Task: inverse folding
């Protein structure tokens, strides 16, 4: 896909941003809603006087978090980068933090240039959810069989048509085939984590994979069923969407 | 101190409770304020029809958290404990969780019977506070010298008069001498933690100790000054009260 050129007299900038998605209606600007994109555009306008469009590596839904979202935008101003970052953090609410600001080459696009992404999904698998983690973990009371989840995960890895693990396969402009490079499940005490790495993800794909793996972990679905679901290309009740607060966009590679 | 007897026809119960103090004006009931004590009394009334007074091992201030607060109360009802706990958690907001409910002997008092307590104070010692930790860490940008903090901490341990590390020494009914059994400082990456263990603590004592140790860590105060401050029994600007959100009541021993 072609990257739109940087307008004359402007330079492209790239930022790494972390946010707690609890209070936001997701990434994308929507009328009358608090969104992360809008907050960033608002503070850049306040700092530079320039009305910019901030694009990201991908939208995150309401309640989903980012540890390392990458965004880009174009500015006529040439701010001192360290000071610009500090200014952003001074004006932003403390649930959004700008971690890094860099100049980027004109051909850089946070989504189109991305070579891969990592998401992590966290589950609290115990009877009582610690109050400090309630916004950052999905709660599954029934003991999860991590061995079965690992087996199911291993069958989904590879270059596959993930239509059955997407919320809206018909609206995916680049089709529904994606290369899922890794899907790992680990337990540490009551915490079960799912790490998903790939060249790209469909809409709600990670939460669908997590929802399916949770069903496998509770014994409701056999691990091998994942292959059948993949081949069917049809989403069924065996693939629920796991709740948003367990999901973190962990990092993006270029 | 004498423990008031359990009224005839009632039994004493003890609960371990965890709470995120962010949204509360502390532990203690105050008119027109959201407090943890009130929330517990409210749900016990809803579950049993009994208006109880819930007492704790000690008050926590607004914004202070508890991982293992212990409380007690008396009931005429004899609920099934597991079901009672589940009922409490179903009615409470998810920032307060009842972890354990047990019958207690009539002489048990969550504060008077306590043999010791552990508090932990957490500091994020990096330039940018991760948004997910903002309610659970104090933020100190200047690099902390943990070795100096450890030295200062070691000089405060023991049976001492902590009047200079208390917010209101004249209102302490049991005097201002306490046995501070341990005061440990550790670093793990950008996270610096202070663990304080003792037979009892004065009002705001842990946050005062943390405030002083942070001053030592930034180099503003020499570690040895702690001894002088202790002996003076007078609180000065060298002992600021560290912010509440770093503090957790970790556990109570009986």
Result:
């Amino acid at each position: 896909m072609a990257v739109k050129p940087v307008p004359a007299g402007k330079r492209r900038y790239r930022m790494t941003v972390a946010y707690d998605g609890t209070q936001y209606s997701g990434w994308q600007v929507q009328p009358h809603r608090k969104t992360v994109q809008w907050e960033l555009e608002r503070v850049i306008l306040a700092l530079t006087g320039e009305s910019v469009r901030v694009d990201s590596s991908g939208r995150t839904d309401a309640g989903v978090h980012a540890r390392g979202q990458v965004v880009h935008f174009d500015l006529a101003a040439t701010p001192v980068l360290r000071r610009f970052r500090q200014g952003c953090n001074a004006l932003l609410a403390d649930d959004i933090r700008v971690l890094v600001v860099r100049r980027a080459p004109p051909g850089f696009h946070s989504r189109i240039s991305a070579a891969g992404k990592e998401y992590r999904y966290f589950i609290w698998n115990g009877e009582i959810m610690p109050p400090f983690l309630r916004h950052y973990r999905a709660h599954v009371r029934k003991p999860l069989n991590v061995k079965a989840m690992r087996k199911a995960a291993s069958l989904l890895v590879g270059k596959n048509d993930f239509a059955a693990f997407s919320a809206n396969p018909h609206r995916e402009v680049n089709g529904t085939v994606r290369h899922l490079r890794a899907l790992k499940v680990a337990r540490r005490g009551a915490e079960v984590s799912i790490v998903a790495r790939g060249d790209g993800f469909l809409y709600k794909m990670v939460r669908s994979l997590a929802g399916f793996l949770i069903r496998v972990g509770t014994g409701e679905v056999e691990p091998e069923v994942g292959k059948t679901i993949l081949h069917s290309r049809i989403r069924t009740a065996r693939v629920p969407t796991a709740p948003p607060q367990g999901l973190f966009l962990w990092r993006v590679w270029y």
